[in-house]
Write a structure and sequence with these properties.
The chain contains 12 helices and 35 strands. The chain is mainly beta and about 850 residues long. The strands form 8 sheets. A 16-stranded antiparallel beta barrel has the order 16-17-18-19-20-21-22-23-24-25-26-28-29-33-34-35. Strand 16 and strand 17 form a beta hairpin. The radius of gyration is 39 Å and the shape is globular.
Length: about 850
């Protein structure tokens, strides 16, 4: 520390002069007992320039009779020093025993400056320090500010920081305060080790915790910065993980951290005592409540005999049972789980005890820390209110819901005693965080080409819990924009209302000869039936239009610039240049008949009602290793509009941890398009490719136009099915933080039963395709412009392949190389596929 000012002490001289056997602050001088007869008004003050005399005198409190005793003078002296207004305070005896208070005022801070800080801005440091410009200079406060600045840098991972305060004296008892910062290098976590883990590999446990090791890409993230609070939270994450997997006796004994000066980083070691792994031996239900049948709670238990003992399942069972008991009129029922371990059989006998709890009511719910979010947004996450019976399960559920909102850095609900013994006050402590996002996304895939997106979103609009997002997409083959809005509590019910408005343009590319323009609007309602089951109702209305280059839709049968075969070519292919030789409108390379029929039909309006039912038990939605997710969707088009159909789609994925860090995935999918009333369009059919069987091109599977002189467009189908087996495994020789995994897989599936248009009858001018006039048509059969020749092979498509999955800082990326084993004669193959994107 460098200080240009020093406190002038007179303690030693004072003690010698007055022989006062007391301990006093530096600079304090006590008067002798001869001054005891003095009054407050007889105290004289010297040296003050800014502080008024009466203000100084006010710190000396007279006793009975208005006289000052030694204790009052001592207390006044201490109080003056504690104000921080004075650099030095002395009390001396003047003429006639008068008390003289001599003060030297602390300087005034003219300005505060920071030097050497590059990673943290001046504005942030100024807001953190207690010393302020035009405020009083205090050495103790400067020391505190120095430590505060250093702590800010440590929180950002810079433990080598050095902060030196310097005081520069200025005229008129003013000083400038300068904090010189040596930031040092970023102090990250160089290694994370585990001791005592036998059941799970260190690689797997590193996936559980939030702290990561430093690597070449750490500059894009901050989870490699050493944070003692995060490490402590990681201990609990490890413990919860073991408890979820049957290790009821697990203990994370310690999290040892050691700074390595050579690596300039921390080594973190977690010491674990796993204990035995238990399975559930039996499940029983008991109660002491009269007229309550405990066996009726069995259907609310998520604990099954023979399964691994899972603390999370026990906790969720307790919550469900306690809520159900409350619904049945037992508002004060408390469910307490118990478990008896059988160490020889490695089983736990689980008992749910349902008893009458204390009759306690909620007096108030006090919310603190919500500077932006409205109170009602927080209160609506509670299933109880003031005056209701206190139910710990419902309070825990409310805390979990508030955390899931992702509006707050921290959420904690505690209780305090109320106005009487049967009343409690719920205290909800919150810390707000930013909920707005602005992102620029970019990516490339073999299907859509280069793609960029700019989006602005807000999860807590105006502090009312509303979600809004606007995005614009511009790419090589896909362009458009979308607007989304969600009200999570419609009319104060736990029903989410969503509104989506979008416009998309898909351009023709190497996979399709035509483009589409779609403009749509879709309102939807979402219901959470259970924590693992959700229902969505929706209505979709959209207008769609097909676009084609003129040379692919002119229906000319004469040789021209687009198709001018040589005589040798014509002879080789059996083409009669004086006619179309049965090729109809295809002889100069037109798009397929169904495509041109969509083009001739102009803009088409689709109006559909639909619903989705989703069952989700995944342990992690982003990187699942265990659980099941099933989506079942149905949409009925025909509520007005120009088309009618019923579309049914099902998709199921099951993840299971196998040995070590190997994860197995079974993926099943299927769909049926049913004709209702009017004929089906080609655009209504399912189009499949690598989304069904990898190794095939987009729109590469299923029925296809076979005309050799057309564009051979994929026609799609009304039925499809797919099955996939995949094994995912990490690369153990690479750091966990790199985020690379490998995959091997086998796919099989099929798409068939095209039911779109196959002929185009000429019954009038309005039904003729573009260019099909009596002078140019040469029909295959009387009364038609052309007939469609297409492949409807029901062969099973299959492939095997390998993949590389990268959870990169740029977003999720995947590379696949697949080899088709069986395929249709006209399918399109694409063995390599890449897709991914980013937000930056």
């Amino acid at each position: 520390m460098k200080f240009g000012l020093r406190l002038r002490g007179g303690l030693l001289a004072t003690l010698i002069m007055f022989g006062a056997p007391v301990v006093a602050p530096v600079g304090a001088v006590f008067v002798s007992s001869s001054a005891l007869a003095q009054t407050v008004q007889s105290i004289s003050v010297e040296g003050n320039r800014r502080v008024e005399v009466e203000t100084i005198r006010s710190y000396f409190k007279a006793g009975p009779g208005g006289h000052l005793d030694q204790g009052a003078i001592d207390d006044g002296l201490k109080a003056l020093i504690e104000t921080g207004l004075f650099q030095d305070v002395r009390i001396n005896r003047g003429a006639g025993g008068q008390v003289v208070v001599s003060v030297v005022e602390n300087p005034v801070i003219g300005r505060i400056a920071f030097e050497g800080n590059k990673k943290i801005k001046d504005e942030q440091l100024t807001a953190e320090v207690q010393s302020k410009a035009r405020g009083t200079f205090s050495r103790a406060m400067v020391q505190s500010d120095t430590l505060r600045i250093a702590e800010i840098y440590r929180r950002s991972g810079r433990y080598d920081v050095r902060v030196t305060p310097e005081v520069i004296e200025q005229p008129n008892n003013r000083v400038d305060l300068v904090f010189t910062v040596e930031e040092g290098a970023k102090t990250g976590v160089k290694s994370i080790d585990f001791v005592g883990n036998n059941a799970f590999s260190s690689y797997r446990l590193r996936d559980i915790i939030k702290t990561h090791e430093s690597n070449l890409l750490s500059f894009l993230a901050s989870n490699d910065i050493y944070d003692p609070d995060r490490v402590e939270a990681d201990r609990d994450l490890i413990r919860r993980f073991y408890l979820k997997n049957g290790f009821a006796d697990v203990q994370v004994v310690a999290a040892l951290t050691e700074y390595d000066p050579e690596k300039k980083g921390f080594n973190v070691t977690f010491k674990i005592e796993e204990g035995q792994q238990y399975r559930v031996g039996s499940v029983d239900f008991r109660t002491s409540i009269a007229n309550f049948d405990p066996t009726t709670m069995r259907s609310f238990s998520r604990v099954n005999v023979g399964s691994l003992y899972n603390v999370e399942s026990v906790e969720k069972s307790v919550e469900d049972m306690q809520i159900e008991a409350s619904r049945r009129g037992f508002a004060f029922a408390v469910v307490r789980p118990g478990g008896d371990r059988n160490f020889d059989a490695h089983t736990v006998s689980v008992v749910f005890n349902i008893d009458e709890g204390p009759r306690t009511y909620i007096e108030r719910i006090n919310i603190r820390g919500n500077t932006r979010t409205r109170d009602y947004v927080i209160r609506r996450e509670f299933d109880l209110s003031e005056g209701d019976a206190y139910n710990r399960a419902l309070v825990d559920r409310a805390e979990r819901r508030l955390k899931n909102l992702d509006y707050f850095k921290s959420v904690k609900i505690t209780t305090e005693p109320g106005s009487s013994s049967d009343r409690v006050v719920l205290i909800v402590d919150l810390e707000e965080k930013s909920t707005g996002d602005f992102s620029i996304s970019g990516g490339y895939s073999t299907t859509d080409g280069a793609l960029a997106e700019v989006s602005v979103s807000e999860r807590n609009l105006l502090g009312r819990g509303l979600f809004a997002k606007a995005s614009v997409t511009y790419g090589q083959y896909a362009r458009g924009y979308s607007l989304s809005f969600v009200e999570p509590y419609l009319l104060d019910y736990r029903v989410a209302l969503g509104l989506d408005f979008y416009q998309r343009t898909q351009l023709s590319n190497s996979y399709i000869s035509y483009g589409t323009k779609t403009l749509g609007f879709s309102p939807r309602l979402g219901f959470a039936l259970r924590e693992d089951l959700a229902l969505q109702l929706r209505y979709s209305v959209y207008q769609q239009e097909v676009t084609l280059p003129s040379n692919l839709a002119n229906c000319n049968n004469i040789a021209g610039p687009n198709f001018n075969p040589s005589p040798a070519f014509a002879a080789l292919n059996g083409i009669d240049l004086s006619s179309t030789n049965g090729l109809g409108c295809y002889s100069d390379g037109e798009a397929s008949l169904p495509v041109r029929k969509e083009l001739a039909g102009g803009k088409t309006l689709t109006s559909a009602l639909g619903y989705s039912l989703t069952y989700n038990t995944l342990d992690n939605n982003k990187n699942p290793t265990d659980g099941l997710i099933v989506d079942f969707k149905q949409d009925f088009a025909g509520v007005g509009g120009d088309v009618t159909y019923l579309k049914t789609v099902a998709d199921a994925k099951y993840y299971q941890s196998l040995v070590s860090d190997l994860v197995g995935l079974v993926h099943l999918q299927g769909g049926i398009l049913t004709k209702v009333g009017s004929d089906l369009r080609m655009l209504d059919q399912f189009q499949m490719g690598p989304n069904l069987v990898r190794g095939f091109a987009p729109n590469g599977i299923g029925p296809r136009d076979l005309n050799p002189f057309g564009t051979q467009d994929a026609l799609g189908g009304t039925k499809y099915w797919g099955a996939s087996l995949e094994l995912q495994m990490p690369f153990w020789f690479l750091p966990k933080e790199v985020g690379l995994k490998g995959a091997v897989y086998a796919d099989a599936g099929g798409l068939y039963d095209y039911q779109g248009p196959t002929t185009w009858a000429l019954t009038g001018e309005t039904t003729r395709p573009p260019g099909c006039t009596p002078s140019t048509i040469n029909p295959v059969n009387a009364g038609t412009c052309t007939g469609l020749i297409f492949d409807d092979s029901k062969v099973i498509r299959s492939s095997v392949g390998i993949g590389l999955i990268w959870a990169s800082p740029f977003g999720p990326l995947r590379f696949d190389y697949a080899v088709p084993l069986t395929k249709g004669g006209n399918d399109r193959v694409q063995q390599f596929r890449f897709g991914g994107g980013t937000t930056f």
